[in-house]
Amino acid sequence: METTIPAPLSAALHDSTMDAHERAETATFITRLMGGEGSPDGLVALLRQSLPVYEALENACREVGPDPRITPILDSRLDRTAALRADLEFHRVEGRTFEAIVPAVEDYVAELRSCAGNAAALIGHHYVRYLGDLSGGQIIKTMVRRHYGLEDGLSFYEFEIEKPKVYKDNYRSALNTLPLSDEDRQEALDAATRAFDLNHRIFLDLEAAGVK
Known about the structure:
With about 210 residues, this protein is mostly helical. It has a single domain (about 10-210), classed as Heme Oxygenase, Chain A (Up-down Bundle), CATH 1.20.910. About 65% of the residues lie in helices and about 0% in strands. The chain has 10 helices and no strands. Helix 4 runs antiparallel to helix 5 (about 80-95), helix 6 packs antiparallel against helix 10 and helix 7 packs across helix 10. The mean pLDDT is about 95. This is Heme oxygenase (Biliverdin-producing).
């Protein structure tokens, strides 16, 4: 009887989250923002939602300790909390503020806090957020600069990584060699799908709140 060899984790994460990813990236709020139909205030609202999410994610990653199931992909250069705070302060000085936290963010933070100490689940969340920032996040930065004339207040999308493509390739290679059990692997895949779904819900909540 032939044994089925599972796909590399990086490929499995991509394939298993494809539908959830598409729902998120085609949400009206984000497509309007990127298409020039939104405003700088919409970007600020999005950055404000992102801050508690990254605070929770980065705290959870610190709390997991030296676990070989996730340590190879952890990198302080990816941390976004300080950049988000700096961007929000820049926009505040420019007269752009948004203080409300939408319900989906509260659920997202609760999800991440529940993953503290759970290396397998954190892999999925780490993959969605940081690989997304190094990929789609760069497109968002380009589009908001083009449409809204913003040159500053975008450090969230800027990394001290010289060659992002090489970095992403190495990140995927590291994912593929993590010492995971079958249960760990499934937990990572499930967490990644939840992350995309929560991200989608943030966009829906911002749209429902009338944020442009």
